[in-house]
Specification:
The structure holds 2 protein chains of 2 kinds. By secondary structure, chain A is mostly helical. In chain A, 79% of the residues lie in helices and 0% in strands. The chains are: A mainly alpha, B mainly alpha.
């Protein structure tokens, strides 16, 4: 393995790939068993996280336009809105708001996906092994007016607002009712994990790109731990369920 | 043939602007019926939606004829993505409204026309 590959961003990307792989599998399995729409949206968002991190690792070895496009579409454009949509499905039960925002999300996802694939790319020659994609993106895909990159603040802003706002709302709700302490902790962790990747953009502007990788990785770890906390069934409830099961003839 | 293409080009342009103006009007009507009066979608409103959606599809077909038949190109390549977005926006939200289990469901068309106007306007700017 080339020495220039073994840098911080490579290990951060690799760890993110493994974490998102396990996390997306668990959430998609939960969706398969329960068939709840919020689990599907979260699972799909996490699968996009996984695809983006696989592409990120792969692109460290060499240039591939399709993987780059997938990396940008999944990583920069689609993860927050899909995760945010899961929260909308979970919390917004009034009318068809969640279904409508889902339709809008599918439409925007399809449009930006096609757009990504017609956007011309100009990768550096030769492609640097162990490339830091974050620093190279301005050269590969210049942020001219009207490019697909214009969607990034919109999709990320709305998605992060939904995910973080929903988690904070749930945490405060459970805390006020003084029930399910695990969900209070879990939701605060999800909120913190949702904010971290969004702040990564500011680190890029400050030329601190290594923090972007840390923020992305830590973000998904916190969301994962928060999810495990929030979905854990407390012991007392578990025992009650078992007693009820045993009492049923 | 040149006269036909010029005619189609004019029709494409006219339909695009009409779509935006009618979209704004329908958005206003949708807000009035759905949010102010809190009533459900009327049969007339739904038929009008279907009519507007069909004109958007006709417009997309004209665009495709101009592209492939006359070799015409929009100002920016991304025009056809916005164009496709305009064509599918209303059918998408009409599907959500028709299959909605919770009524009233005018919200779908408020979303639909909001997107139609936004995407349609961007489409014109890139055309």
């Amino acid at each position: 393995m080339p020495a220039e590959l073994l840098n911080y961003s490579f290990f951060a990307s690799l760890s993110m790939m493994l974490t998102t792989g396990v996390f997306s599998f668990l959430v998609m399995r939960a969706w398969w068993q329960k068939r709840r729409p919020h689990l599907f949206a979260w699972g799909f968002g996490l699968t996009l996280y996984f695809v983006a991190s696989v592409a990120q690792v792969w692109l460290k070895f060499g240039w591939d336009p399709t993987l780059y496009r997938l990396w940008y579409w999944c990583g920069a454009l689609m993860i927050p809105p899909w995760l945010g949509q899961g929260t909308v499905f979970l919390l917004v039960r009034r009318g068809s708001i969640a279904r409508n925002s889902f339709a809008a999300l599918i439409l925007v996802s399809a449009m930006t996906f096609v757009w990504m694939f017609i956007t011309p790319l100009t990768p550096p020659e030769p492609w640097p092994i162990g490339a830091n994609l974050v620093t190279l993106t301005d050269g590969i895909m210049p942020p001219f007016s009207g490019s697909v990159r214009a969607f990034v603040p919109i999709t990320n802003g709305i998605g992060t607002l939904m995910l973080v706002g929903g988690a904070v709302y749930s945490a405060r709700l459970f805390a006020a009712k003084q029930i399910m302490r695990n969900r209070v902790i879990g939701n605060w962790l999800i909120a913190l994990g949702g904010i971290l990747p969004a702040t990564g953009g500011y680190f890029i502007r400050l030329d601190m790109t290594a923090f972007k990788y840390t923020a992305d990785f830590l973000g998904v770890v916190l969301i994962f731990v928060g999810y495990l906390f929030a979905t854990a069934v407390p012991k007392a409830a578990q025992q009650r369920a078992e007693r009820r099961k045993a009492a049923t003839p | 043939m040149t006269a036909l293409y010029a005619y189609l080009r004019g029709a494409h342009y006219l339909l695009a602007w009409s779509g935006v103006y009618v979209g704004v009007l329908m958005l206003g009507i949708g807000v009035y019926i759905g949010i102010v009066q809190r009533r459900d979608v009327t049969v007339l409103f739904r038929r009008t939606v279907y009519f507007i959606a069909s004109t958007a599809i006709v417009q997309a077909i004209i665009g495709a004829i101009l592209w492939y038949g006359a070799g015409a190109r929009p100002a920016a390549e991304v025009h056809w993505i916005y164009g496709l977005g305009t064509a599918v926006a209303l059918p998408f939200f009409a599907f959500v409204e028709v299959t909605a289990q919770k009524r009233p469901s005018m919200g779908s068309y408020i979303w639909g026309f909001g997107m139609l106007v936004a995407v349609g306007f961007r489409s014109i700017l890139t055309g």
